[in-house]
Amino acid sequence: MSKAVRGIYAAAVSPFNADGSLNAQKLVSYCRHLMSPEGGCDGVAPTGTTGEGTSIALADRLALPAVFAEAGIDPNRVIFGTGAPASNDCLALTRASVDAGYTNVLVLPPYYYKSPSDEGLYAYYANLVEKTGRDDLRVYLYHFPQMSMVPLSTSLVTRLRKDFGPVIAGVKDSSGDFEQSRAFVEATGGVAEDFDVLPSSEAMLWDGLSIGTAGIISGSTNAFGAKAQTALQAPEGPERDRAMEAVRTARTMAAGYPLMSAMKTMEAWRSGDDEWLRMAPPLVPLSADQQAALRRDVEALGGADAAVAAG
């Protein structure tokens, strides 16, 4: 199998060493946790936005897929972020991933120059596909206009899909707009046509599945993946409604904090390892007041989340 399994993905946060380098072995262990029953996720998307991917040194990013391969992490459950402003950096990162056996990649558009034409964006992705030269490559386009300031139009997505077929495997829609996800599904056919639209919020999980999305890739599933998995597995009716209400409550709570810092704080509590609090500049850890407020909010969720907050 080449294409990543569908379902609940965590945009995994990244652990850093004291010198600012990526702690690859700790990231591997953490991704194992995320994909365990406790973590609740079907797969992981490392070195994306929540993973501070654009702040990780290129050398660390290039070396990471081989570390995952050595650890025996299932390639069908990993989507590496390989986007970069320079097309040849993106190409190098993608080659490192597929050479290690990880053929699923999540690719931001080149995000430094604003308002590029669809023709220019097409050239960027076409360069990646053609120069990688692998029929088993699976590219997930990354639509995140609030962060990249470079939106991906439905016409660009459908053109790439038409010209490169299954190599253009899907799109992660981080717009936060359900109607945008619907537009991508309607333009491509969604899962009915083997094209995976993946919204970025678990609060959209079942609404999305009902129109043909493939699951979600979310930052808050670093802490709340098990809640999302419970909702995914729940039968239609009151049980699913209750599970989705718990998902939405947790997601809304998390949205009240800088997400990457909050997820790292919760992992520090869960693991008892304060090294998780390190952020790559310009991002910073939560303040003492923010940590205290987050602890109160997590405890208010009750259950396993309260145990995490208790540390």
Explain this structure:
By secondary structure, the protein is α/β, with parallel strands linked by helices. The chain has one domain (7-232): TIM Barrel (Alpha-Beta Barrel), CATH 3.20.20.70. Helices cover 49% and strands 10% of the residues. A 5-stranded parallel sheet has the order 3-4-5-6-7, with helices on one face. It has a 3-stranded parallel sheet with strand order 2-1-8. Helix 3 (87-99) links the parallel strand 3 and strand 4.
What is the secondary structure topology, with strand pairs?
Elements lengths: L6 E4 L13 H11 L8 E2 L13 H14 L8 E2 L5 H13 L4 E4 L10 H15 L5 E6 L1 H4 L5 H11 L3 E6 L4 H11 L7 E4 L5 H7 L3 E4 L2 H13 L4 H17 L4 H13 L16 H14 L1 H8 L1
Parallel strand pairs: 1-2, 1-8, 3-4, 4-5, 5-6, 6-7
Helix pairs in contact: 2-3, 3-4, 4-6, 6-7, 9-10, 10-12, 11-13, 12-13
Radius of gyration: 18 Å
Strand-residue fraction? 5-15%
Oligomer category: single chain
Mean pLDDT: 97
Count of the separate structural domains? 1
Helix content class: 40-55%
Mind telling me the CATH class? Alpha Beta
**Pattern of helices and strands:** EHEHEHEHEHHEHEHEHHHHH
Strand count, sense and barrel status of the largest sheet are: 5 strands, parallel
Which CATH architecture? Answer: Alpha-Beta Barrel
Shape: globular
Structural class: alpha/beta
Q: What fold name stands as the CATH topology?
A: TIM Barrel
For the terminal residues, how far apart are their CA atoms?
40 Å
